[in-house]
């Protein structure tokens, strides 16, 4: 049986998504073993401001994308597609930012 920790954070197929994401914001972390600790690490970090808020939303978007893609593999026989998973997470975050941030005007193709 697959654990939540492996599914979302430590699987060799999803771990590169997290490392890439962390490189965008020059963040270096050690991933905790338990999903709750992973959540706390990213939601209650000491960073403040717009980028910190966006990072928290990104964490949620990527985690949700991983969940949706894993379900699609299990229940619909889809194949694992890292690029699609990342694209879906980026689109989800972009959609949220359009509705949550006043003045967010970036077109998805330029984002």
TrEMBL record:
Name this protein carries in UniProt: Reverse transcriptase zinc-binding domain-containing protein
Provenance organism: Glycine soja (Wild soybean)
């Amino acid at each position: 049986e697959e654990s939540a920790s492996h599914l979302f954070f430590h699987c060799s197929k999803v771990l590169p998504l997290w490392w890439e994401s962390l490189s965008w914001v020059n963040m270096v972390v050690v991933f905790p073993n338990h999903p709750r600790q992973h959540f706390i690490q990213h939601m209650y970090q000491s960073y403040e401001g717009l980028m910190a808020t966006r990072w928290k939303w990104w964490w949620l978007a990527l985690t949700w994308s991983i969940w949706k893609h894993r379900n699609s593999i299990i229940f619909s026989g889809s194949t694992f597609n890292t690029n699609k998973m990342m694209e879906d997470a980026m689109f989800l975050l972009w959609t949220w930012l359009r509705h949550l941030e006043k003045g967010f005007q970036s077109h998805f193709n330029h984002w």
